[in-house]
């Protein structure tokens, strides 16, 4: 199933690339008319070819007024269109010299555009009746980098069809990945899978709306400035991605300083999202998000390499996936407009290449980690079977070859007690015996034998014992503590498991223990 999935990814990838290249090469043969900007100062614009101009104003909150000249149009050609492909502009207004205007852009509902589409489209028939010149006003709080292109009706249809087909194909890949993750979460109930679902959902949502597909087909009657929506979605990706990486690499228990750093990044990201709703400079917010993104991704790569070296997690595919995420941001910083000249074919190739590759690498890392989880679950079940078997058959114990011969048992127990009493490692909700073994520098079988034979307790019972003792301490200090919050805070994954363990260890329910711990009322 996994091999078939990967094969489908690359087949779709090759298909959309070949189709886009063929259609665009055909479309460029139709050379009708030309587009010229009436401005000698080329500081913020560049003539790409006879039919296309690239506008690059950066972060420029004030309106930008431009005049264009449309020339060499045959008399029968009144069906040409002026389009702003791959545009993230909030508002675009095209007017003739008399002042009659049409407007489009993300701040305006798509169903109010004269030609609804996935990017602003303006028919030139009415504008060219009296003059070959038109006025254009652009306004956006997003980074203004937009192509203005003159196309025929046939070209517009080809561009829209290919562009939509590529976006829908890539969205289908994201949906398949999310479905696979949901199925994995239902089976394993691991928190990092849940956070990766949220992260993948954010990628799909970002791709959906930044591409214009969401505004065109999902919410055509809803105008929302993409300059704001983009900041919200990027901030969401940073927060959900940080949570995913933290739980995937078990940063809280293995790299605690980094865990605090990631929490600070999430808090600052939430603040930046809030500032995006104000008139706070968007350039500062964008640069902050870039720094956060690079810091989180770079740190994740370093930690995954360390985890690979320690052999605590197999993260080869995860490292490659992180490198792909880092590469896309570095290319964005360098500016892909300089690298690809910002023509349509190159832009489509860029997204069609990156998204499937990243999904492929991420899916492989997820599959590898899921296999580890399944192996850990089988080890835990085997440990429980061995523990019960050991308790009923002392003769079998004598015949077994010990795995802890040669290690300093007293020193290991001292380090174990420090981890439990001082570091309170048991509070980690997803703590597994393999995690404890990695911290102690032992194998899983050595830790299992140390607990079973020396301490006469299994790993799950050890965790329950310390978690219940911690819960009792919290109740004694704060009898008003909420039971459900208390259960999660000490490491239990469900209320029922907490109740059963508490009753088994103390003979009382948590409520009964709270009542017994409260001082008697004064008559």
Mind explaining what this structure looks like?
The chain is an alpha+beta fold. It folds into three domains: 32-156, Jelly Rolls (Sandwich); 159-375, Rhopdopsin 7-helix transmembrane proteins (Up-down Bundle); 409-517, Arc Repressor Mutant, subunit A (Orthogonal Bundle). It has helices spanning 2-27, 153-188, 191-210, 213-218, 226-248, 251-254, 256-275, 282-310, 316-334, 336-340, 344-392, 394-399, 409-421, 433-440, 444-454, 459-477, 483-489, 495-506, 510-517, and strands spanning 34-37, 45-49, 52-59, 64-71, 81-83, 91-95, 101-104, 121-123, 133-139, 143-151. The chain has a five-stranded antiparallel β-sheet, with no helix packed on it. Strands 2-3-10-5-8 form a five-stranded antiparallel β-sheet. A hairpin with a 2-residue loop joins strand 2 (45-49) and strand 3.
Task: List the main descriptive attributes of the protein structure presented here.
Rhopdopsin 7-helix transmembrane proteins, Homeodomain-like_sf, transmembrane helix, 523 residues, five-stranded antiparallel β-sheet, transcription regulation, single chain, Jelly Rolls, DNA-binding transcription factor activity, 3 domains, Arc Repressor Mutant, subunit A, membrane, alpha+beta
